[in-house]
Design a protein that fits this description.
By secondary structure, this protein is mainly α. The protein is built from 13 helices and six strands. The protein is about 55% helix and about 5% strand. Helix 11 crosses helix 12. The termini are far apart.
């Protein structure tokens, strides 16, 4: 219920994770259809980049203004920080404060004067401004670091490397907010070089109890995790896509014209294969380099047919092998019988 600086930076991290989720799933999904020349009805979704910019912008972001308040000379309090926010962010559509002189919130009794509210992707969150400046400073006086570094205990000495007189830096230490922002930036850079898989966990209730399903809580989580947009994009698009070469290699055994070898472009082979199997035209689409399959049941059908075909091929191989083995044994026995008979006739 009471959110301060700690919850603020946690929610900032969640916004950044949601942003990369949008970039790597919803946006990339629709951009791939455009690249492949697939007919496509664009699905609108909310991009939370505007909220991330509200927090992390180097000039007008909340973290930048908090750092500016911590560094400027004179009397600095949480109230002066809130006043600065009200001046810079008053017109931002995702920022709310009763002190911003914005007529929309002047009479909002649910929003105290010492708080501000941000409309996050997951919903509105109100933050108590008290303690923001002190928690962001997070300073340890230089003489304390030096005193701890002089300790005889090796562990304590290792915990305060900044106390080493040889490494004294007269620059002001970075604030907690700027350190967290840099860490989040490093995390985002690392994630963008990967191919992440997402697992969305939904809590059925707040009691951590079995057999209790809170429908309102579940719907809220589905909404703020972005699952609705993701499902809409997936349902409007194609559930499965694969380059032509591996697709043909996997399913070519289902068609006499493509088995065992197809002579020609892989796309033409896939087209012959799908026509032979009688798959409806609305269930698939040909891109520039990939085949797109709309419904998962079509893919399941292909896999079932492949599984059955593999069993048939295994039976055929076994049958041919057994026939060859029996024929070889028979021919050997026949040859032996002829030899025995010829020797018998010679001495008879």
């Amino acid at each position: 219920q009471d959110n301060s600086f700690e919850q603020f930076i946690i929610n900032y991290c969640n916004e950044k994770l949601q942003q990369i989720f949008i970039e790597l799933t919803l946006k990339e999904e629709q951009e791939e259809y455009i690249r492949e020349g697939i007919e496509w009805t664009h699905i609108e979704y909310f991009n939370n980049a505007i909220i991330c910019d509200l927090i992390e912008n180097n000039q007008t972001g909340i973290l930048a203004m908090l750092d500016e308040e911590c560094l400027r000379p004179g009397t600095v309090t949480d109230d002066t920080f809130l006043e600065k926010l009200n001046q810079v962010c008053a017109t931002h559509q995702h920022f709310e404060s009763r002190m911003s002189k914005c007529s929309r919130f002047l009479n909002d009794t649910s929003l105290p004067h010492s708080c501000f509210r941000i409309q996050h992707y997951a919903g509105k969150v109100m933050y108590q401004v008290e303690g923001f400046v002190d928690k962001n400073n997070d300073l340890l006086y230089r003489d304390l670091s030096q005193a701890m570094w002089k300790a005889n205990h090796s562990l304590i000495k290792a915990l305060f490397p900044e106390g080493n007189p040889a490494k004294i830096n007269l620059k002001r230490p970075p604030t907690a907010g700027s350190q967290f922002k840099a860490s989040v930036a490093t995390l985002m850079k690392n994630l963008q070089t990967k191919n992440p898989n997402y697992i969305r966990c939904i809590k059925p209730n707040d009691k951590k109890a079995a057999h209790i399903f809170n429908e309102a809580l579940v719907c809220h989580q589905i909404r703020y995790l972005g699952l609705l947009e993701n499902v809409r994009v997936r349902r409007a698009g194609y559930a499965f896509r694969q380059p032509y070469e591996p697709c043909l290699e996997r399913y070519k055994m289902l068609c006499k014209q493509t088995w065992p070898h197809w002579r020609g472009p892989a796309r033409d082979g896939v087209e012959v294969l799908f026509n032979e199997l009688g798959i409806p035209e609305e269930e698939f689409s040909f891109g520039r380099s990939k085949i797109f399959i709309r419904n998962p049941r079509t893919l399941f059908k292909l896999e079932d047919l492949r599984k059955q075909r593999l069993e048939d091929l295994a039976t055929l191989i076994e049958k041919i092998y057994r026939g060859w083995k029996c024929r070889t044994r028979f021919l050997l026995m026949k040859k032996c019988q002829i030899v025995i008979a010829s020797w018998y006739r010679r001495y008879a």
